[in-house]
């Protein structure tokens, strides 16, 4: 909840007390997705805000001091330098606040998770932004950020007891808390009372940094287990969360990622060994090739020409045996075939034994690494294992065109055979599949490994690529099929690149466009 409206409302109030009439002395970036603002307060003290606004993690931090590197740093929002802070405004029912500067400038901190950004407005109009990759942020108007919402009992009654229309910025933690309190099973008045209790907790101003299965968490609700830290100071809470996220959370995430990679490799090696063991059983139960050759030579006069199999007496075991034949060869030539297989068998057996030994050694080494990993307690200790954290398939250069928008990866096939490779081998059933309708073109995949809801603007951007890499490239608008990959299949009679779409979940009209 570190980017939650209810926390930011308290944080912005504290920032108002600290920054009123302070001057912005520095505003620069020296790391990707990171911006540092340095203020000089009226009492002469410095105050820093470090904004980490990456697509995977976004948060504010307030270091006591900050050393700017002599190289590889760039000044940003230079119009604000030496400008005086006039106000810190929290936008109503939104995960954003703004710092107002003399000169009618407003620097908006838009803390929308993986779409976090800083946007500068002058005289109420868009001026510039920090994260250029968030293309649509230049369309966000200053007047539209605040959302006035009726949060009365009558509004809840009109919404049939559904709280989300009244509290859209509650967040997953708030929703989980209400669910744990049995909100859905309560009558309307009891629901209202529970909502008031929740708002009271959110206003109390206690902040907890906790450990979760997914890493380090931040919450305003009292946790069931002992928190890693607890404070009533929102700035101290964010600082503790930031430090623990990277010192503990990132260590836990990397360790888990390495462990999962080792376990995947262990399962693959064990399955491969099982297949080798099956081959051993087959070898032991089958009649040796040399004996089959001897049986054929003993009964050549009983083997007809042009047959694909023959039943003869197995004098080694005193029972009939069915022998497979090459119908284009003579009986004697078939016998020679089996003698040749017998000679090669010793080589195959040696190779098989080598594979068995190699896989057994490989399994033992992986099990040893897993045991050693269990005892690692620091990020430094993970260094010998870091090479194992990268999946082999993902580390190889992919044979497709690749695009990315706000953390979503899009793959585009290069030709007919490449389309088959993309759709049939690399794409997973939960991925989104797109193709220009009724014309030939590239298959396009929006990767969705976590099976989330893909935003509409991502679909639109992927569809524009599908239209661009098709025969409709020069048209003003192109219809594009959008569906889950699980509804796309291919039969043996289809030519390369051709597939059957069992269900078109959506057809969108887009402008063919190549973007980066």
From TrEMBL:
Database matches in InterPro entries: NFACT_RNA-bd, RQC_Subunit_NEMF
Pfam families registered for this protein in UniProt: NFACT-R_1 (PF05670), NFACT_N (PF05833)
Domain NFACT RNA-binding: 404-500
Lineage: superkingdom: Bacteria
Residue spans crossing the bilayer: none
Keywords annotated in UniProt: Coiled coil
Coiled-coil portions: 335-376
PANTHER family given in the database record: NUCLEAR EXPORT MEDIATOR FACTOR NEMF, RIBOSOME QUALITY CONTROL COMPLEX SUBUNIT NEMF
Annotated protein name in UniProt: NFACT RNA binding domain-containing protein
Organism: Aquirufa esocilacus
